[in-house]
Amino acid sequence: MSKVLIIGAGGVGGVVAHKCAQATGEITAITLASRTESKCRAIAEQIEFPVATAQVNADNVPELIELIEREKPTLVINVALPYQDLTIMDACLATGVDYLDTANYEPLDTAKFEYSWQWAYQERFKEKGLMALLGSGFDPGVTNVYTALAAKNYLDEVHEIDIIDANAGNHGQPFATNFNPEINIREVTAPCRHWENGQWVETAPLATKQSFDFPEGIGPMNIYRMYHEEMESLVKHIPTIKKAQFWMTFSDNYLKHLEVLQNVGMTRIDEVEFNGQKIVPLQFLKAVLPDPGSLGPLTKGRTCIGVIARGIKDGKRKQVYIYNICDHEACYREVKSQAISYTTGVPAVVGAIMMLTGKWRGEGVFNMEQFDPEPFLEKLGSMGLPTVVVEGGEWAELT
Ligand code: NDP
């Protein structure tokens, strides 16, 4: 019996529930719990396999413990928000259950993306013989696994990585984010950091831009350098990496709206007084923006997320580009969601299957690059996200 408890019934939670229900060889029972149980029930109704639902406030450890003790899962899949990572890890420790998430912990009042808080659980998970798998989405997640694959099969030493995330899709809305708007805007407006010669180099948010020619007919798009959390674990676990950068595409329209929202103070994450009430402008903005879930039927086009790894093979410089292309409309036909939630939810389920089947096993807190990439990528392909590897080619150094 492998029962999973999914926490969070947003865009990603919906995909995770659908995909767990397709993996009946490995997952035998599913409970979907979230703050608003009606959202769990709406997802459960789309799925033929029985999905039990529950209400939980994941900020509250005793409530989580009660839920876990009642449901008795083998694994908790956390696809709520990054703010809930530590409370859910605490509840897993208290109840002796393994843990998986897709985004690193962030305190509500500082947009600070770092693993320190979760890595601090290493000894506690180890002592209890439990496993926590951090960042099992696409980026972080599959991008870590692609880097591990480059290190295992294609390069003797990885020296540089460029993680490149393109959403070449269009939802037709004037301004909307493809996943939780609060988390998305906190990430995009944070100072940029990249790794160079053993240290983090900080630059202004989205200040470095260039054009990148994406494969398979997607063509050239502007990419902007920003900080992204997987770089922190990758440079720790693959110490030959001298330079690590993360790039994302943004349309001119998205950037124009974002600039105005920032200039007028709507992306602030501190509290302001409004009509005798304290509100956080970014949380208010989230409430008026389109729900990312509503973009599913509207979004057309593809995503292309991958890693260019460069280094040494047999004494010579070599590069390898490893990527996936995912089609928004195909995702919607399959699981009623666009590709951003799909490319996050499918790797979460594949990570869960790696843990449940013992293909990835360990005691303590782990990042994705610490395990064998091949069984993960094999399963990922069979569950809808195939991997393309392009060896050699032009030495495409992004500066
Ligand atoms: P959504 O905002 O769509 O969904 C979040 C869900 O969590 C909602 O159902 C929400 O409930 C629930 N939730 C929030 N707070 C609590 C709480 N205190 N207790 C219980 N439930 C709560 O977000 P997404 O589905 O887009 O994203 C989910 C996660 O995936 C995020 O952590 C995000 O950072 C991560 N992500 C990772 C990516 C990757 O590639 N690694 C890419 C994209 C996202 P309610 O409906 O009541 O608000």
Describe this structure in words.
It is built from 14 helices and 18 strands. It has 2 domains: 3-134, Rossmann fold (3-Layer(aba) Sandwich); 142-337 and 386-391, 2-Layer Sandwich (Dihydrodipicolinate Reductase, domain 2). It is globular. The strands form 3 sheets. Strands 7, 8, 9, 10, 11, 12, 15, 16 and 18 form a 9-stranded mixed beta sheet that branches. The mean pLDDT is 95. α1 (11-22) crosses α13 (339-356) and α7 packs across α14. It has 399 residues and is an alpha/beta fold. A hairpin with a 2-residue loop joins β8 (192-196) and β9 (199-203). Bound molecules: NADPH dihydro-nicotinamide-adenine-dinucleotide phosphate. NADPH dihydro-nicotinamide-adenine-dinucleotide phosphate binds next to α1 and α13.
Features:
399 residues; alpha/beta; Rossmann fold; Dihydrodipicolinate Reductase, domain 2; 2 domains; nine-stranded mixed beta sheet; seven-stranded parallel beta sheet; 35% helix; 28% strand; binds NADPH dihydro-nicotinamide-adenine-dinucleotide phosphate
Mind sketching the topology for me?
Layout: E1 3-7, H1 11-22, E2 29-34, H2 37-46, E3 51-55, H3 61-71, E4 75-78, H4 85-95, E5 98-101, H5 116-119, H6 122-127, E6 131-134, H7 142-154, E7 157-170, H8 181-189, E8 192-196, E9 199-203, E10 209-214, E11 219-226, H9 230-237, E12 243-249, H10 252-263, E13 272-274, E14 277-279, H11 281-288, E15 300-313, E16 316-327, H12 328-335, H13 339-356, E17 364-367, H14 373-382, E18 388-391
Parallel strand pairs: 1-2, 1-4, 2-3, 4-5, 5-6, 6-17, 7-12
Antiparallel strand pairs: 7-15, 8-9, 8-12, 10-11, 11-12, 13-14, 15-16, 16-18
Helix pairs in contact: 1-13, 3-4, 7-14, 13-14
NADPH dihydro-nicotinamide-adenine-dinucleotide phosphate is lined by residues 8-13, 34-36, 39, 56-59, 79-82, 84, 102-103, 137-141, 179-180, 183, 292, 341, 344.
